[in-house]
Amino acid sequence: MDAVEELHLKTRSSKAWIETVLNNFDGFLKDHADCERKASSMAMSFVAKYPDRKEIIPELIHTGIEELEHFRLVYRIMQQRNLTLNHSIGEDQYVKQLLKHCHSNREKRFRDRLIIASIVENRGFERFKLVSDYIQDEELASFYRMIYTSEAKHGNSFAKMAALYFPEEEVVERWNELEAIEGAILESLPLKAALH
Cα dist. 155→78, 119, 124, 160 in Å? Predict the structure, then answer.
């Protein structure tokens, strides 16, 4: 699985994105909390939809719990800043557009969803790292260093899960196809103080 471990995003987030985030960091925190809740649900949805994939269920449960712990930590920061959670979690156009490119075939859809999860986690890694690099508050910078390290592991783990069930060459080829699509989607979306 060496090739799977070497997968990286080619499209980089713009300086304008990080500036947008830093100009409305409270808004970004609220979106971050929503994203952690969605990430936890996403990991557990794999367990619900593919209960026969016993090899990956322990890792999925671990990921779901870790994302929920991240939500708890983000919410603690929100409390310190007197912020409330969003009343409802809005639709994520970035993820919605990515999922449109999944195969309809059950097996290939399973592969594509794992690969998309890997790409989304890698984007989280890249963007949380930018936040940690640019934010002036050292406590928040340290927090986001911890978050991006975790996101990097998740990105790897979803790609490795796919390689358990599909040939590595196929996983790498499809990852690269979907990564190029992800880059185009990212650049087409309006800038906002949000992870995506």
Answer: 26, 6, 9, 9
Domain of residue 116: give its range: 2-6+14-188
Q: How confident is the model at residue 163 (pLDDT cuts 50, 70, 90)?
A: very high
Domain annotation covers residue 111 = yes
Mean pLDDT over all residues of the chain?
Answer: 95
The CA distance from 39 to 192, in Å, is: 20
Question: How far is residue 60's CA from residue 42's CA, in Å, rounded to a whole number?
Answer: 9
Judge contact between 115 and 175, C-beta under 8 A. Answer: yes
Query: Does residue 194 lie in a domain region?
Result: no
Domain count, the chain: 1
Cα 157–90–132 angle (5° rounding)? 50
With beta carbons less than 8 A apart as the criterion, state whether 172 and 3 touch: yes
